[in-house]
Amino acid sequence: MAEPIAPTLTSTGLIVLGVATGLDPMQLLAGFIGCWWYNTYVTPPLPIVQRLTSGILAALVAAWVTPPVLAWVTGSAWWPAHVPRGTVGLPLALAAGFLTHRVLGPALLRLAQKKVEDIAS
Length: 121
Known about the structure:
The chain is mostly helical. The chain has four helices and no strands.
C-alpha cells in the first residue's frame, strides 16, 4: 500500500521545486500527471521507482517546453483574442508530460544522431 503515497510526496516535492526554481508548479504537476497517465499504458507495468523517475523528468520537460509553445500558440493569428492564455497552459503541460518519453525523447535522439552523422561526413 506504499504506492499511493509516492505520487503525493512527489507532487509536493515538484511544487516546492517549482517555487524554488521559478518554474510554474502547476505545469510541473500537470507534466508529472501526464507521464503517470502514459505509464498506465506501458506493459509490463514499470516499477514504482522507474515510474516516479520518468514522471519527474517529464514534469521538468513539460515545465520548460510549455511556456514557449504557449507563447507561440497564443501569439498566432488564428488564436481568438477573447480566450485567455492560461486556459491552454495546463492542457499543454499535460500533453507534454504524456508525450515526453514516447515522442519527444526519440525525436531528440534522432535529431542528435543526424547532427552526429552530418559532422562525421
